[in-house]
């Protein structure tokens, strides 16, 4: 078998626009798993959220969460890799984001902190309403993010806004002035992680963990934060709905997330 591990982004890739995994996709993934292929969920989402979808597809492989800042076994507490942001950087970036009038969110391994229920925290709150208590993401609205950052390891900072031009300006300032990794998963956000953190680095960590070489690894994605893993993989796959930047570095372009592109790829190339 040529390909032994498939790392899949979630939003815009594995999930359709309704945030669902279709039955056809579940079946294709189940058959790939039965053939011995390691199916890896690789996402910018917090681990708890990624775990829910990993359980849906039945994968036994570890989960890559927070854009590669956290890799953990799915069914136990064994953390394979974790790297937090420098606390001084967290403080300075939070201050800059708030100075722009934004509400940054800071993420630990299991909790999202924000000063206001907006964007990420609001979306996860709505998601929690559909989840059983043990599968909900912890969300805490606080008065001072910097005080929280002093007490906890922060895996990433997320800044979202409908003012995309202003958001891009802040993103560029952070990229130019701090030794951190900065990626966007949607047009209206950017995420800040520790230096050298990326999905590509995380996929390499897992490939080494299993003893796979890069030619045995497939990565599938759709946005800027997926580029590093697409470039790393033996076969880098872009969704039809992917950004043009990601498509330009991919080896293969498949159907869109709303047309079951992942299922079709697995049926043709794996099964």
Automatic annotation (TrEMBL):
GO molecular function: magnesium ion binding; phosphatase activity
Catalytic activity, EC: 3.1.3.-
Keyword check for rRNA processing: no
Enzyme class name: hydrolase
Hydrolase found in the keyword field: yes
Coiled coil regions in record: none
Name of a matching Pfam family: Hydrolase_3
PROSITE patterns to which the protein is assigned, alphabetical: COF_2
A single GO cellular-component term on record: cytosol
Signal peptide bounds: none
Record's keyword terms, sorted: Hydrolase
Cross-referenced SUPFAM superfamilies: HAD-like
Source species, domain of life: Bacteria
Entry-linked PANTHER family: HAD SUPERFAMILY HYDROLASE-LIKE, TYPE 3 (PTHR10000:SF8), PHOSPHOSERINE PHOSPHATASE (PTHR10000)
UniProt-recorded name of the protein: Putative phosphatase YwpJ
Biological classification of the source: Bacteria, Bacillati, Bacillota, Clostridia, Eubacteriales
């Amino acid at each position: 078998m040529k390909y032994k591990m498939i790392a899949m982004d979630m939003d815009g890739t594995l999930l359709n626009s309704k945030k669902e995994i279709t039955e056809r996709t579940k079946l294709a993934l189940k058959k790939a798993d039965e053939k011995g292929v390691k199916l890896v969920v690789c996402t910018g989402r917090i681990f708890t959220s990624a775990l829910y979808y990993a359980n849906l597809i039945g994968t036994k492989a570890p989960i890559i969460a927070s854009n590669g800042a956290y890799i953990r076994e799915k069914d136990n507490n064994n953390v394979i890799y974790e790297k937090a942001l420098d606390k001084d950087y967290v403080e300075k970036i939070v201050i800059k984001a708030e100075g722009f009038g934004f509400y940054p969110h800071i993420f630990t391994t299991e909790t999202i902190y924000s000063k206001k229920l907006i964007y990420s925290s609001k979306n996860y709150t709505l998601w929690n309403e559909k989840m059983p208590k043990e599968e909900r993401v912890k969300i805490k609205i606080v008065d001072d993010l910097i005080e929280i950052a002093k007490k906890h390891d922060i895996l990433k900072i997320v800044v979202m806004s409908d003012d995309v031009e202003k958001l891009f300006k802040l993103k560029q300032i952070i990229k130019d002035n701090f030794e951190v990794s900065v990626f966007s998963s949607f047009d209206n956000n950017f995420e800040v992680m520790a230096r050298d953190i990326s999905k590509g680095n995380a996929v390499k960590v897992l490939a080494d963990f299993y003893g796979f070489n890069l030619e045995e690894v497939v990565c599938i994605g759709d946005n800027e934060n997926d580029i590093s893993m697409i470039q790393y993989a033996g076969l880098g796959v872009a969704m039809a709905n992917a950004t043009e930047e990601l498509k330009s570095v991919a080896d293969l372009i498949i159907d869109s997330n709303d047309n079951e592109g992942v299922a079709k790829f697995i049926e043709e190339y794996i099964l």
